[in-house]
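Practice problem: predict the structure.
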Amino acid sequence: MDELLEILEDLLPGEDVENCTTLIDDHILDSFGILSLVSEIEDNFEVEISPAELIPENFNSAAALWDLICRLKEEE
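Answer:
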């Protein structure tokens, strides 16, 4: 989780990424940010995020992203 928080902090400097639950809903994370984030997650955690996973529920918070990463790692 710490590595994910570092990635989010690099992409969204100044945001409380650890506690925010509205990264998508409040437009903190935009489409370019999502693409950058997906690329970083895939590279760092060796998972593949399919287009079907690109929904707000998976990207609104660090916890939701961590759940997604864990689920994808289990599916491998």
